[in-house]
Amino acid sequence: MPQLPPMEAFNNYKPADWRTGFESKLTVESSLPYEEYTGHIEKSGNDQNQYRLIRLPNNITALCVQDPDAKEAAASLSVNVGSNANPAELLGLAHFLEHMLFL
């Protein structure tokens, strides 16, 4: 099993502060408001994709990835709830709603 680095190696680590670094913008076609992250998005030197981090007025944050060689488009969604958030009288609700996303 690989050894983890000592805790001192993480002392200088600072997670991104996603509350700051966003600039207000409007969409071109419909003039809908959104915010775009203007800070640095760290990626591998071998990664040729372009990245944009945007936040919508309802606080949904989306990472947009543009791959110039892609032939298809895709989307994914992460919802910060699960089975532990089910009401006691509706067990399985989170799993049901997960399936509803893909109809």
Q: Indicate the structural class.
A: mainly beta
C-alpha-based Rg, rounded? 19 Å
Count up the helices: 1
Helix content class: under 10%
Please summarize the sheet with the most strands.
4 strands, antiparallel
Unreliably modeled segments: none
Topology pattern, helix = H, strand = E: EEEEH
Principal-axis shape: extended
User: Could you give the order of strands across the largest sheet?
Assistant: 1-2-3-4
Q: How many extended strands?
A: 4
Classify the beta-strand content into a percent band: 15-25%
**Average pLDDT:** 83
Distance linking N and C termini? 42 Å
Helix-strand blueprint:
Elements: E1 22-26, E2 33-37, E3 50-55, E4 61-66, H1 93-100
Antiparallel strand pairs: 1-2, 2-3, 3-4
Describe this structure in words.
The protein is mainly beta and 103 residues long. The chain contains one helix and four strands. The protein has one helix spanning 93-100; strands at 22-26, 33-37, 50-55, 61-66. The chain has a four-stranded antiparallel sheet with strand order 1-2-3-4, with no helix packed on it. The longest helix has 8 residues, at 93-100. The protein is extended, with a radius of gyration of 19 Å. The chain starts with 21 loop residues before the first strand and ends with a helix.
